[in-house]
Amino acid sequence: MRVVPLIGVLMFGAACAAHAEDDMQLLRKVGNASRQQALDGTYLHQMNGMLETFRLVRQGQGDNVREKRTSLDGPPREVVRSGGELTCYAQDKRALMACKISAMRLFPALLPDDVDDIARSYVLKRTGTDRVAQRDCQWLDLQPRDPQRYTMRMCVEPTTYLPLKMITLSPRGDSVEQFTFTEIELAGVKDKRAYRAKLPQKFLLRSAKAPTGADPSISQNEITGLPQGFRLLRSAERVLPGTGAKPVRHLVLSDGLVMLSVFVEPPPPENARMERVGNLHGAINMATSYQGDMQLTAVGDMPQTAMMALLKGMHLNAKSE
C-alpha cells in the first residue's frame, strides 16, 4: 500500500482552499462590476424566440450609482436606478406591464449581491476565451451540482471584470436566455439628463430601503425538505394585487444563485385546483401546487420540472414568533 506523506495531504488541502478562495474573490469582482462599473452600451436580449435591444448608461459608485436602460424596440420602456431604488417608466399601462416583466432580469447584474453562498450549489469553471463587442473576455461557467438546475455562463472583460455576455443553459445544454453587449464604452455618461426618465407612467419596482440579503432573525426550521443547497432567506406577510387585501405568506429561497419566491395562500375549491407550470420571461418560470390546505406558487429562475419538485418536496412548519 502506498503511503502519502502528511505534508503532501496538507499542501493539497491548502491549495484546494486557496483555489476556492480565488473563485469567490473572482465572483465578488464580477458581481461588483455588474452593478457598479461605469458604462455606456447597447445590448441584445434573446429568449423564447424573441429579441430585444436596450441601451444602458451607468455612472457613480455605491449609493450614488445612477443607471438608465431604455428599450430600443418594442413598447417604449425605461428602467431607472438611483442607488438602491429601481423604477419602471412607460408610455401607458400596457407598456408599463411589459417594463415590469423585462425588469425581472437586469443584465449584466444577474449575480446576487452576496456571492459567498454560490459554492453550496455551483462549481466555477474557467472554460476559455472569446471576443464580444470587440473586446477580449474570459468564459466563466457556474455549473450546478444538481444537474436539474440552470448553468450560467459569463464572458468577463479581464480588466474590469464586467460580464459582456451571459447565457443561461437548460439541464440539456440548450440556451434558455442570452444577453450580449454589441457596443460598449467602459465610461459612463456624465450628463445628468441622460439618467432622467422621459416617459409619463411609472411604477416603483424596489425602494432604496428594500431588504436584499438574508434576514438574520429567520429560522430555517420554518421550512424543511428543500433541495440540497437551498435555504430560507426571508419570510413575511404581504398583500398582493387581486387577493382582496388578504395577506399572503411570502417566502424567499435561494441556493446561492437562484432566487425563488414562494407565495402561500388558501387554495381554491377542490374542483378548481390544478397543478400547473409556465414560463413568464426568459429563464423566469412559475409553478403552482397544493399541500393540505395551502396553495403554493413559486416564481424564479429555475427549470419548471425542478421548481415543481421543490414545491412537492418542501414542508411548511408553523412560523416562529
From TrEMBL:
Any one GO MF annotation of this record: antisigma factor binding
PROSITE patterns, per database record: PROKAR_LIPOPROTEIN
Gene3D superfamilies reported in the protein's UniProt record: Lipoprotein localisation LolA/LolB/LppX, MucB/RseB, C-terminal domain
Entry-linked InterPro entries: MucB/RseB_C, MucB/RseB_C_sf, MucB/RseB_N, MucB_RseB
Superkingdom of origin organism: Bacteria
Segments forming domain MucB/RseB C-terminal: 222-314
GO biological process, one term: regulation of polysaccharide biosynthetic process
Domain MucB/RseB N-terminal: from-to ranges: 24-193
Keyword terms: Periplasm, Signal
Extent of the signal sequence: 1-20
Localization per Swiss-Prot or TrEMBL: Periplasm
Pfam families named among the record's database cross-references: MucB_RseB, MucB_RseB_C
Family label: Belongs to the RseB family.
Designated name of the protein: Transcriptional regulator
Lineage, opening ranks: Bacteria, Pseudomonadati, Pseudomonadota, Betaproteobacteria, Neisseriales
